[in-house]
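I hope you will forgive my troubling you with a question about protein structure. The full record is reproduced below for your convenience:

——
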Amino acid sequence: MRAEHASSRFTTQLEVLQPGRRYRLSLTLKGDGPAGRMHDTITLVTSSREHPLLQIQANTNVNERVHVFPDEVDLGTISIDYLKAQSETAESLATSLMLYQEGGKNFQISATTDIPFLELSTSQALLKDRYEVRVKVLPEKLKPGEVNGAVVVVTNDPEFRRLTIPVRAVIEGAGRPLPSN
């Protein structure tokens, strides 16, 4: 058995655990290619007449030196009426973005948003190579409709000065019935 692929993003190694029965396929990401997500196929060539080829999907992700996780915020559907009835639910809508600077020593950021019902706060990690941006929903500022906005992060990194993180939500208007369980 052997492994074949056309990708230059990674290398593979096939180890025989039990000849003709069990194998271990290891993939090592090189990490020096272009940033982004890629989907490649690894083909295992076998001696089997019934299954001469086995295909395995390899999903890889290489980040830029400065990157954010997650790369978008989807708040889903938010019911104003439900939030009014269940005040503790607003806290459950809070989320965090993590911004990383690989090899950073004194990474600095500021974060803003064009969405009026979001409140942002930032905190730096002890190693000073990352920040958390806490995204909190302010229920009193919600208005019905579809939301397509962003969190914009400005950094002190000379190569990555600005990152834009998309934010989506659908706000259901006041006066509608509460969702039933």
